[in-house]
Amino acid sequence: MPARTLPETLEAAQTASRALATLTSVQKDTALAAVADALEAESSSIIAANARDLEAGEAAGLAAGLLDRLRLDEPRVAALARAVRDVVALPDPVGVVVRGSTLPNGVGLSQVRVPFGVVGAIYEARPNVTVDIAALALKSGNASVLRGGSAALHSNERLVAVIRTALESAGLPADAVQTIDAFGREGAAELMRARGLVDVLIPRGSADLIQTVVRESTVPVIETGAGVVHILLDASADEAMAVDIVRNAKVQRPSVCNAVETVLVHRDAAERLLPPLLAALRHEGVLVRGDDRARAVDAGLEPATDDDFATEHMALELSIGIVDDLDAALAHIRRFSTKHTESIITGDMAAAERFLAEVDSAVVMVNASTRFSDGGEFGFGAEVGISTQKLHARGPMGLPELTSTKWIVRGAGQVRG
Amino acid sequence: MPARTLPETLEAAQTASRALATLTSVQKDTALAAVADALEAESSSIIAANARDLEAGEAAGLAAGLLDRLRLDEPRVAALARAVRDVVALPDPVGVVVRGSTLPNGVGLSQVRVPFGVVGAIYEARPNVTVDIAALALKSGNASVLRGGSAALHSNERLVAVIRTALESAGLPADAVQTIDAFGREGAAELMRARGLVDVLIPRGSADLIQTVVRESTVPVIETGAGVVHILLDASADEAMAVDIVRNAKVQRPSVCNAVETVLVHRDAAERLLPPLLAALRHEGVLVRGDDRARAVDAGLEPATDDDFATEHMALELSIGIVDDLDAALAHIRRFSTKHTESIITGDMAAAERFLAEVDSAVVMVNASTRFSDGGEFGFGAEVGISTQKLHARGPMGLPELTSTKWIVRGAGQVRG
User: Fold this and answer.
1) Residue B241 burial (CB < 10 Å; 0-12/13-18/19+)?
2) Which of A167, A357, B108, B393 lies deepest, with the highest CB count within 10 Å?
3) A&B contacts, CB < 8 Å
C-alpha cells in the first residue's frame, strides 16, 4: 500500500512546488548534478529493476518495439545521466522577462516566466521519460507527478527513488518528484481530474492512451502525439538523398514517433526512385506495402490499405503511395497525418516552399530526415515530448515549454479613467 | 432553421481558415477597416437588434450587471468600431520568427508564428465579445466560430451579418466569421467535442459556463476566468491612494471581471483606513460586508461569510477582511482567489516584492487599480479574454495569443547518425 493517498500526494507536490519556485538556478543545478551522479552510481540496481520489467514484458508478449523502448542497459543509463547534465547546462527559463512596457500613465508592465507549479505526466513503458521529465520539470521550477505505467513499474520506482534521495542530499524536497504508479489505473484517472491541483498534464505513448487522456482530462493537456510521419519524394528528388533519408527515417530507430510511416512518391519519379529505394529497404528487412500504383511498378509489394496509411507501426514496416502532384500529396497528408512531422525531398524551390507553408504539422522539413524532429537534436537537452496540438507548445518541447508567465504591474497609485 | 448543419459550419470554417492563412497583412487590414466602417454605418440596425435582446432580458429578469454588459448604444457601437481599428493598427503576428538556429550539421531551424486555424468562442450576453474576437481572430489569420448565447441572439446575429458582408466586400470568405447561436445548446455541446475541427475554444462568462466548457470540452480550452479579485491594504498603505484605488476598482465598472471583490486590510492599518474607505464606498452606494474583526471596527457592516469571500458579485458589493500580516493575506488569497488579478497597496518595498513573487495569479500589482488588468489597457487593442489558466496564455490575451507556431527545418540531405 502506498504511504499516502493520491490527494495527499498531489498536496505534497503543491507544497514542494512552492519551495521550488523560489530556488536559485545554482541550487537547482547542484541538485540535478547530484541526480546525474546518483543515476550512474546506481546503474546496476536500475538495470536489475528494469530486468524484472523486461522479463514480465516478454512473458506478456509485448511487441519488440515496446520492449526496445523499455530496455535499460549500461549505455542507456549513462545516456540518462548525460541527458540530466545537458539540462544542467541549459539556461534557467524562470524569471526571464518575455515582454515589458511602460504605459502612458506611468504604470510599468512586465511579463515574466514562472514555473507551472505541478506537472503531471502519463506515459507507457519508457523509463527514460521518467528521468527526462523529472529533470526538465525540476530545472524549470516545477514539481512532477509521474504515472509511468505498469510495464515499467519496477524501473520507474527505482529511478524515482534514486532521484528523490539525490534531491534530498542536495537540500531539496524529495516530493519535487513523485510516482503514482502504485495507485494503478484509478490513480491515473484521478490525476486527469485534478484540475486546480495539477497545472498541466502531458500524455506520452500510444494513440489510445493519448486519446483517453485528451477525452477524460479536465486538467489542461499537452497532446504529444502519435506520429504517422510522411516523406514526399518529389519529381526532382535526388536519388541518393531520397534513399538515404527514407532509410534513416525508417531504420535508425523504428520504435519512435519521428520514424517515417508513409513515403509518397511523385508519379514522374516512381520508375526512377522506387527500385533503388525498395532494394535499400528490403536489405534492411523492412516490410514494404504499396498502393495499386506502386504495386504496378513493383509487384513484390504487399498491398497497402487505408488502415495501413493511418497506422503508426513502430516497427520495420512502411507504406508507399504514388501521387500525381504536390496537391495530391498535400491532400493525402491532410487526410492521414497526425500533424507531427513531414518532409519533402526535392530540388524544386517552389515545391519546397509550398510544402513548408501548406503542410499543417508541428515540424515541416525539406531535404532532411524526420528523425531530427526531436528535442535533443534541436538543442533542448532532453525533451518532454513532441506536441502535436497547437496550444501552448508545438513540436519538440524543452524548458521554456514547461513554464507559464505572470504579469507584474507596478504603479504609484494610478486608477483607470 | 439554419441553412447548414453544425459539421458543415465547422467544415466551412476550416476551408475559410486555409484561405486566411495565406492572406497578406494588407489584405487583412483592408477587410478589418471595412468591418469598422460597416459597424458605424449599421449602428442603428445594430442598436435596434440589441433593443430586442434588452427587452427580452428585462422581461426575463436579468441582473442589472448582465443587462449593462448586454447593452449597445451609439457610443458603445462607435467603441466597437474603434476597437476594430485598433486591431488594424497592431502588428500582424503571423510569420514572425520566434526562434531560429543552425545545428552543427548544417540543418537550419526556425520557429514561425502561424494561425491556429479555427478558433471557437462560447460566451454570454456580451455583444462586444463578438466583434473583439472576430477582429482579433481575423487579424491573426484564424476563422472564428462564435456561440454568443441566447440573451444576445439578435445583437450577435446582426453584428455577424454586418461583419460577413463587409468581409465579402473586401474579397475575403464570409465564412471567416460564423455564429452558431441558431443551433442552441446542442450546438455549443457539439462545438466542445469538435477536436480536430476546432483548434482552440475560449469560454467567457459566468463561472458555471466556464466550468461546463472546461469539463465537457475535448477541444483545447483557454479558461478565461471569473475574477474573485483581491486588494490588500498593507500596514503602510497611503490613505488617499488606498481609498482611490479601491473605489476605482469597485465602482468604475462593477460588472466586469477585473473589478475588486475583496479588500484585505492589515490589522495595523484597520483603524486608520476603514473609516475613510467605508465612507467613500457607501457614498458610491456599495454594499459592504465584513468579517468579525472588520465589524468590530465598524458595526454597520453586514456580516461576510466564506461564500461572500468566494463570490464574484459583478455588482456594487464588496467584502472586507482584517488580516494579521502578509502571510495571512497570502493564505486568504490562496484559498479564495480565482488567480485572475490581485493588487497590494503599500509603501513597503519588501512587502511589495513578496506579494508580487508569491501570489500565484495571472496579474499581480502594486499600487495600481485592478481595473488595469485588461487587454485594451495593456495596449493589445481589443482583448480575447483574460486567461486564468497557465497553459499557452495567462492574463489579458491579444494577437500573439491567437497564434500557434510551426518548426521549419531546411536541410541538404542530412540524416541522423
Assistant:
1) buried
2) B393
3) 193
